[in-house]
Amino acid sequence: MNADEPQPVTVTVELSEAQAWALAELCKRIGWADARALSVDEAETHQMIRATDRLAGALREAGFSPR
To answer: How would you label 30-54 residue by residue, b for 16+ Cβ within 10 Å and e otherwise?
Structure first.
């Protein structure tokens, strides 16, 4: 593997059902403008959005998929 390629990271977290639903809602509601306001540049904004999309997918697979 190329030294410049990002290495995958696995994060395991235990949440209450209420916390999982709240986090799923946050992932659904957060958007580009929110991430951009909290990031240092557009590259970091892209990473934030990609990460929240991945998190939302994992929550969806676990049964937490808000409408």
So the answer is: beeeebeeeeeeeeebeebbeebee
d(CA 1, CA 49): 25
pLDDT tens string 14-64: 999 999 999 999 999 999 999 999 999 999 999 999 999 999 999 999 999
User: CA–CA separation, 60 vs 53, rounded Å?
Assistant: 10
> What tokens appear for 31 in the block?
């958007």
For residues 51 and 26, give the distance between their C-alpha atoms in angstroms, rounded to a whole number: 13
List the structure tokens of 58: 């994992």
